[in-house]
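Table 4 source record.
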Amino acid sequence: MDNIRNFCIIAHIDHGKSTLADRLLENTKTIEARDMHDQVLDSMELEQERGITIKSHAIQMDYVHEGKEYKLNLIDTPGHVDFSYEVSRSIKACEGALLIIDATQGIQAQTISNLYLAIEHDLEIIPVLNKMDLPNAMPEVVEDQIIDLIGCDHEDIIRASGKTGEGVEKILTSIVEKIPPPKGDPNAPLQALIFDSVFNSFRGIIAYFKILNGQIRKKDLVKFVHTDKEYFADEIGVLKLGLMPRDVLTTGDVGYIISGIKTAKEVKVGDTITHVKNPCPKAISGFEEVKPMVFAGVYPIDADDYEDLRTAMDKLQLNDASLTFEPESSAALGFGFRCGFLGLLHMEIIQERLEREYEMNVITTVPNVSYLVHLTDGETQTVYNPSGMPPSTKINEIEEPYIRANIITASEFIGPVMTLCLEKRGTLVSQNYLTSERAELVFNLPLGEIVFDFYDKLKSISKGYASFDYHVSGYKPAKLVRLDILLNGEMVDALSTLIHFDNAYNFGRRMCEKLKELIPRQQFDIAIQAAIGAKIIARETVKAVRKDVTAKCYGGDITRKRKLLEKQKKGKKRMKQVGNVEVPQKAFLAVLKLD
């Protein structure tokens, strides 16, 4: 155990951790030169393209230091806020962390929140200043920020560059010297933490774990504590670039187990593996079910593709267990699924993977969050969808989820950022200056206001310099109403939204105006109305395509003209009863981009 070091990398998006990981793998000769390519741990095409890590990865490196051979287990973590639970499990499987900070950008919001997670789990932190080869690097300024944040000395900070390989040897030496070996008792009952799982179409689910106590052998009968399912360990091993089978793994090792599991729901990140015959006394703490926070309807553009979409969703769920979905139908869009996502980036990635990997063309409805509805008879319902809202006469009060948001920005943008947060019904919790140039703002905000366009607006008002991180803090009562859109008196369920009472009138009016532009003219007038319950709050009319019926009638008495006009009026009325209004696809998307 003394020769094992388990560590993870903490960094904000785009601070260069995947590139630095490449250099570590090269220096320890874990990867042959012919297998080497940029960001070798980001296996998905989408990850390579966007330069973000979506799935966490683990890999073992062998390193010789002062004549002793060490096993270094790198457990890579995603940097984005949506995947913070996965990050917390990866951190729990480590004894140390590399804190990587971009020398040109300094400390960002995500770095701070993941750093606090690491400090809570008592990890040894090694600060690394990356991208030192760039001409606009500001090492002295950023080093002072790091010292303020974690209280280390100037000598502790390693200056490195993922591109040129500068400082990589020093990082490897620090990992061996500073990070403690794993603690645990190899003779105790088996206790292993699952920190990730991947789906392989031939072998089923492969679970990655770290052994905290005890040991596991091939063909052992093991039990997953939280799902209470038992399996034989058909194959266990360690993770190099591929899977390397072993006969036994002991305390402190990071490895994988294959036991022919076919459904993703049976393997949960954060679960504990133990032996059936000699189980550990208690499960590893901190396990929680991953709860989706943002909900949206996903519908196939062509109704015949419904079954293909179901198959695609099933396969996607095997790769990404945090996606939840259930069938639903809508009068406007036909059959589809109500899906739950961890956040907006997660939703975007799922949509893109559906289009790329499964060639499905889908429509996504307005995203919304889950609300707790307290009814007058004392019951509580969870509502994900505006159409599932009980009638207003039965509702006692509605609670909506709130988040605690940390925003770090340059001090010149504090005014616009505050204005934006206050417009979104936020309340300021605290404001402090990290340096004279940068400030951290902490706000309490309703999650429902964030899911629309908050992130885009924040980036544009701060010229891309604000970083944003949040965690869900609980539910609070809110004055919410359901806003319906009626076309000729008929409700279009896909355009219904739950919205705060103060914003409803404004939003309803803008929505009617937008729909008026998008709905094509018919032979009859189309009334577009926004309604709260039975009360109409806004109306626009799409005028009929006019046909001059009195053109052939010249001279003579006015009654002849009137007769023709009356006849036309009856026809229009009949047409309005029979004719239906097609809502074009653009209308659903326009609601998202109302501003």
